[in-house]
Each structure stands twice: as structure tokens, then as C-alpha cells.
């Protein structure tokens, strides 16, 4: 498990790469004890985990999911406007899956080059 936290002035940021199964517990612990404004969360990210982030860390300004796998529904949960302070979302090098589990990036590539 890899967890890093750093204080920056009055805000903190965290990078989470925990073992599978501990994500929800760690998110709830971070949400309860810290004023987190930046979160890096990497790995296979579930909709439950995204919901915990959105509900538990409403003041997030920066959210980094780079090099992760998540569903299109999970991504839409972030983009729906509940994170009012969010101004940066990093999904670089992510595998984003549709409801059938297929990479939506492949669909976008097909649409762009028709």
C-alpha cells in the first residue's frame, strides 16, 4: 500500500495507491481527518470509490486519476457538478470503460477517423 500526504499552507494533498479492497476505508479516513484539496487516486477505481470521494471530499480542487481504470459512469459522477471547487481533473492515460466494459477511447478513435 502506498499513501503519501503533504501539507501545503492550509491545504493538504494525498496520493493513494492502496491494495484492492482498502480504497473505501482509506477515502473515509482521509475525508474525516484532513482538509484535502488535492487527491491523486490511482488503480482500478470503482463507482463506489468515486461516490465516496465526491461525497466525502466536496472541497477538492484537483483530482488526479491518471494511469487508472474507471467506468464512464464513474467519470460522469465526477463531472456532474457536485465537486463545486474542482478545477482540474487529470484522466491522462486512463482506461475508461463503457457499460459493456469496452474502452471508450477506442470508440472515440473510430468516430474521429470515419
Short description:
This is F-BOX DOMAIN CONTAINING PROTEIN EXPRESSED. With 114 residues, the chain is an alpha/beta fold.
Task: Estimate percent helicity.
Answer: 25-40%
Distance between the termini: 43 Å
- The general outline is globular
Number of helices: 4
Radius of gyration: 14 Å
What spatial order of strands do you see in the largest sheet?
1-2-3-4-6
How do the SSEs run, as a string of H and E? EEHEHEEHEEH
Q: Would you tell me the structural class of the helices and strands?
A: alpha/beta
Q: Quick one: biggest sheet?
A: 5 strands, mixed
Instruction: Count all strands and give the number.
Output: 7
Organism: Salix koriyanagi
Protein name: F-BOX DOMAIN CONTAINING PROTEIN EXPRESSED
InterPro entries: LRR_dom_sf
3D structure, described in words:
With 114 residues, this protein is an alpha/beta fold. Helices cover 33% and strands 28% of the residues. The strands form two sheets. A five-stranded mixed β-sheet has the order 1-2-3-4-6, with helices on one face. Strand 1 (2-8) and strand 2 form a beta hairpin. Helix 1 packs parallel to helix 2 (47-56). 18% of the residues are buried. This is F-BOX DOMAIN CONTAINING PROTEIN EXPRESSED. InterPro entries: LRR_dom_sf.
Amino acid at each position: 500500500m502506498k499513501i503519501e500526504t503533504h501539507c501545503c499552507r492550509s491545504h493538504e494533498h494525498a496520493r493513494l495507491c492502496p491494495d484492492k479492497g482498502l480504497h473505501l476505508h482509506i477515502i473515509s479516513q482521509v475525508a474525516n481527518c484532513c482538509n484535502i484539496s488535492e487527491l491523486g487516486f490511482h488503480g482500478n477505481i470503482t463507482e463506489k470509490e468515486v461516490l465516496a470521494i465526491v461525497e466525502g471530499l466536496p472541497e477538492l480542487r484537483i483530482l488526479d486519476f491518471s494511469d487508472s481504470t474507471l467506468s464512464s459512469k464513474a467519470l460522469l459522477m465526477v463531472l456532474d457538478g457536485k465537486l463545486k471547487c474542482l478545477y482540474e481533473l487529470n484522466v491522462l492515460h486512463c482506461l475508461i470503460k463503457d457499460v459493456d466494459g469496452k474502452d471508450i477511447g477506442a470508440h472515440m478513435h473510430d468516430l474521429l477517423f470515419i
